[in-house]
Amino acid sequence: QSNATQTFACALTGQSPLSDAVVTPSGYVCSRRLLLAKLAENGGVDPFDSSGTRRLDESTLVDLAAGGEIGAAAPPRPPKATSLPSLLGMLQAEFDSVLLELYDTRKALEETRRELSSALYQNDAAVRVVARVARERDEARGRLEEFLSGDAVAMARGEAVVVPEEPQKRGREGEEEEADAPAKKAKSNDDMEEEASDDLTKIPKSDLAAMNATWKIVTKGRKSIAKLKRSKEEATKCEAKLTDLADGKEKKVNLGKSSAKAGVLCMASARAGDDREYIVTGGHGKAAIVYDVSDGRMVATLSGAGGDVSAVHAIMLSDSKTMMVATGSADGFARLYSVPLGGEDEPALLGSAELGEGAPVNVTVHPSSTADEARVLVGSSEGAIELYKYNGGDELKLVTRLESEGDVKYTSGCMHPDGFIYIAGTEKGDLIVWDLKTQVVAGTMKGHDGNSVDFIAISENGYHVASSSGASPGIHVWDLRKLKLSATLAPGDNVGTVHSMAFDPTATYLAYAGEGGTAVCVAKDWDRVVCTLTPAKVGGKKGKKKESSGAPSGGVVWGGEGFGLKEGEGGKVWLAVGCDGERPVRFWGVE
Asked: Which pick of 107, 142, 402, 516 has the fewest CB atoms within 10 Å?
C-alpha cells in the first residue's frame, strides 16, 4: 500500500506524482503543484473540459494518499539514460507531445480561417451596400438636376421677377404684362440653354431627358432578361432548335450590285410589329441593302455613300411601318435614312454629316429616336464619339463630341441596350467604357495583347461584353459590372478568324462567325459549343473567298421568334451570316 500513488501517471505530464497527487472531480490524477499552476494560467478553467466552461479550484481537489501519509510513498527510481528502453520511451513521449501540439495548432488555424472568412464576407457586403447607396445618391442628384432645369423651376423664377409699373395706372394692360412675365423669363432661360448647348463636350439637357425617358422603358425589359432562369428541360428544347439549324439546309441570297467587289462588311436586323423581319447589309457597293427575310425580297437600296459602307444600324419606329437606318462609310460620312415598309413610298435620305476627323467605325440609331427627332451616335476612328441630331432639314447636326485623352484611335464600337453606355475598342486592345449620362469615361478594360479590337457585342441583359481581334486569337468575354475579363474563348479551326459576334435576344447564347463557319456557345458556360454552322460546299470544293485587306469584316444576326422569356414562348430561330470577300448572305433556319 505504501507505493499506491506510484501506480498512477499525472494527466498533465505523464509522469508519476511524487508526494502531491490529487484527483479532480472529473476523475483525472494530477500533481497538485502543476495543476494549480495550470489553473492560474487559464483563469481557473478545468483543463480537461473540452467545452472550456467548467470551473475548477483547489477546494474541489481530493488528495490521493496511501497509509495515511502522503510523504510515505517512495519516489520512483530515475530512468537510466544509458538504458535503450528508457531512451525509446522518452522519444515516444516527446513524439506524442509534438503530435498533440500539432493538433492544437491545426485546430487554432481552422478557427482563424473561419473568422477570416466571416470578416471577408462582412466586408464584401459592406462594399456592396456602399456602392448601392452611392448609386442611389447619384440617381437622386440626376433627378434633382432634371427638376432644376425643368419648366416648373423656370416658371417659378419668372414669378419672382418684379415688373415695373406706374402707381395707380395698372389697368388691364399692366395685368396682362405681369401675367406674361413668367413665360418671357422661361423663354429667356431656354435661350440661355440653347446658347450653352454649343458646348460640344456636353449632351444638351433636352436630349438627355429624352434618352433618360427611353432608359426607364428599356430597363424594364432588361430586368426580365436578367431574371431569366430556364429549367433543364427548357434549356434542352432551346438547344434542340440550334442543332436543327446545323442539320438544316443553308440558304444563300446575293445582295447588292453584281458589278461591285464581293463582300459583306456589316449587318443589322430589325423586327416590325407584325412579326416581319428585315436585315440591312453594307458592303463595297457604296450602298446599304434592306432585305425582307419574311418575303425573301429586297425592299430598298440606300445609296449616296462615297465609299464602302462599313457600319449600319436599324431600328423600327413605334408605328412599325417605318424603319430608320443609319450608315457609316469610308468617305467619312454618316447618313440617316427613313425606309417606309408595306407601302409605295420610297426610302428617303433624312440627312448626312461629315465627321470632323477620321471615318465611322460604328453607327447607332439611339432608341429614343422618333420620326420627327432622331439621334445617331457615331464612333470615329480618330478617338471620338459624336452625337448627331435630326429634327428636320437635310443635315445631321453635331450636338456633342466626346474625345478620349491622348493619341487614341478607335477601331470598333457598340452601344449598351439601355442607351446610356457606349463602349469603344481601340487599336491598342483597350475597351473604353463611356457613360453618356455624365459624359465621362467610366472605365477601361485592357486585353487582346495590345492588338486592335475589331468587333464588340453586348448582351441584351447588359452584363456581358464580347470582343475580338483579327490580330490575336480568341474571343474575350468581359463582365461589365466589374470591368474584368470573365473568359477567353478559343474558336476552332472550323470557325477561323472571327469577324463578327452577336448575343441572342435572351442573352443565353453567343454566336461568333469566322471565315470558316459560325459557332454558337452557351453564355456563362462559354466553352460549351451547342452547334457549328459550316458553309455548304460549292462544286465539290469549298468556295474560296477573296482575300480582304485590313481587319476581318462581316456580320451575324439572330432572327425568328427566338427562345422566349417564359415557358411556352418563342418559336423558330434563324441566323444570317455574311463576310468580306464573299458575295452572298447565308441563312440557316430560313426556307
From this structure: 107
C-alpha cell at 401: 463630341
Q: How far, in Å, CA of 149 to CA of 204, rounded?
A: 11
Q: What is the pLDDT of residues 283-303, one digit of tens each?
A: 999 999 999 998 899 999 999
> Which cell numbers in the block locate residue 138?
447619384
**pLDDT of the residue at 539:** 38
How far apart are alpha carbons 516 and 535 in whole angstroms? Answer: 8
In order, the DSSP letters of 393-422 are: SSBPEEEEEEE-SSS--EEEEEE-TTSSEE
Whether 239 and 508 have beta carbons less than 8 Å apart is answered as: no
Helices (DSSP H) in 384-526: which residue ranges?
Answer: none
Residue 115 CB burial class (10 angstroms; 0-12, 13-18, ≥19): exposed
Residues 6 or more apart in contact with residue 365 via CB below 8 angstroms: 313, 314, 315, 324, 325, 326, 336, 374, 375, 376
358, 382 contact by CB (below 8 A): yes
Q: Whole-angstrom Cα distance, residue 504 to residue 443?
A: 26
Please answer whether residues 477 and 490 qualify as being in contact, where contact means their C-beta atoms are separated by less than 8 angstroms. Answer: no
Ranking 164-173, 193-202, 445-454, 457-466 by mean pLDDT, the lowest is 164-173
Rounded to an integer, what distance in angstroms lies between the CA atom of residue 425 and that of residue 437? 20
Is 333 strand, coil or helix? strand
Compute the chain's Rg from CA coordinates: 39
Q: Side chain identity at 70, as an amino acid letter?
A: I
Left if phi > 0, otherwise alpha if psi is -120 to 50, otherwise beta: which for 202? beta
Q: Which amino acid is at 354?
A: E
Instruction: State the Cα–Cα distance between residues 417 and 217, nearest whole angstrom.
Output: 11
| C-alpha distances out from residue 19 to 2, 67, 262, Å | 12, 13, 106
Question: What gap in Å lies between CA 269 and CA 293, rounded to an integer?
Answer: 10
Decide: 321 and 290 in contact? Cβ < 8 Å: no
- Output the nine-digit C-alpha cell for 485: 475579363
Sign of the C-alpha dihedral computed for residues 56, 58, 60 and 66 taken in this order: positive
Q: Measured in whole angstroms, how far is the alpha carbon of residue 314 from the centre of its chain? A: 23
> In angstroms, rounded to a whole number, what is the distance separating the alpha carbons of residues 329 and 306?
7
- pTM for this entry: 0.67
At 117-149, the pLDDT tens digits run 889 989 988 998 999 999 999 888 888 877 765
Distances (CA, A) of 542 to 98, 191, 251, 525, 548: 73, 64, 16, 31, 17
Q: What is the mean pLDDT of residues 142-168?
A: 51
Q: How far apart are CA 568 and CA 574, in angstroms?
A: 18
In eight-state DSSP terms, residue 157 is: H
- Look at residue 272 in the predicted model and tell me its pLDDT: 86
Contact by Cβ (8 Å): 280, 301: no
